[in-house]
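Question:
When you can, review this sequence-structure pair and walk me through the tokens.
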Amino acid sequence: MTKQPLRIALFTGLYAPFLTGVSVAVHQRVYWLLEQGHEVFLIHPQINNKYSKQVGNRPMSGLEELQHFPNFSSYAFPTEPLILYKSLPQPLNYRHWSDTKLLEKFQPDIIIVEEAAQMRGLYSFFLQGYGRPVGVNYAKRTKTPIISIFHTDIVAYIRYYLGDVFFGLLRPIVPILVKQFSDAYSLNLFSSREQLTKYQQLKCQRGEYVPYQGINCEKFHPRNICYDPIPDDKRPTLLFVGRITPEKNVTQLLDAYPLIAAKIPDVHLVIVGSGPLDKEISRRAQNYPSGVTIWGESHGTELLGWFARADIFINPSVTENFCTTNNEALASGTPVVAALAPSTSEQVIVGYNGFLAQPNSPKDFAEKIIAILENPELKAQLSQQARPSILEFDWSACSQKFEDKLYQLVDVTQKVKLSS
């Protein structure tokens, strides 16, 4: 018997044209759910004149790709720039718009809140944000199941921005906040087993691992070498793709680069992305004018070409939660050297598709990269094994597991309602 399509309300604090891994993942998830015949009501951040023109002009997949689905509808909630990161949005307070009224009109079978802590205001230390758990009032009143999806290690992010001293003062109340926040939702999903364990130790309620964070393995493929952005450049290329922010540890790439160049003189480091540390990274890169390229943002086939072109994808961040770009690199046949962090050990199999370096250690990071570049046989083996190692996380397989969880929650809720 074929299951009936679901009416799904999906809130997200990040969506195109705001460029993050969350934005990309949410769009893919909504597109897949619509393809399966579900009715999706997407509640997403509004782009307005408070943001730079660069933000609004990004060639990202977004609403225009969804409009042709008759089972799709959307609402753009009012936003203002995040205090610490002006190119990302924060929802205005619930006094300015009502999640409950939106849900009352749509009457969903299930509610999904992507990066719920960010929407509530945790990214701005509650100086901004919605001010209360999104979707929860309606869910409790109508007994509708509601899911919170954790994309990022929010506790680690806060530690980066506050510093160890101030974070140490807050440490005793972190479990209280995590418990209170997670207790509002029927289920809190994590795409990383390691991060789930970490948050369970911080008193997370009803946490569960579901490998929902997939990538399109047909889109990211070694054959994309045909889009090589620098086809005449034969130097060994190290690639980073991501936001240029403190928690991504991008400055450590420039700490490691001279150590690598001392052994591999023609090595080429390419940094793709943008963010608050753009000026600092560009300034430091001037010390290596022939060896470091600050590319800026990249989209479409050009970005696909970078992933396939690179000899090694490098990721020094210690705040990742099943990092999308790591998987995109592996699917493109590119081995990964990443800092040991929540979830990276679930992506990088040491000696099989890459290596893990000690966190915040440019020296160890450099040594792992040098070991690959100095050994052509090892590099070829890692490259050959990279793509097969990540195929189980193809988007369709991950989305199917996510859909199964939605049906499970809806079925359980219906049984509870009937018994009542």
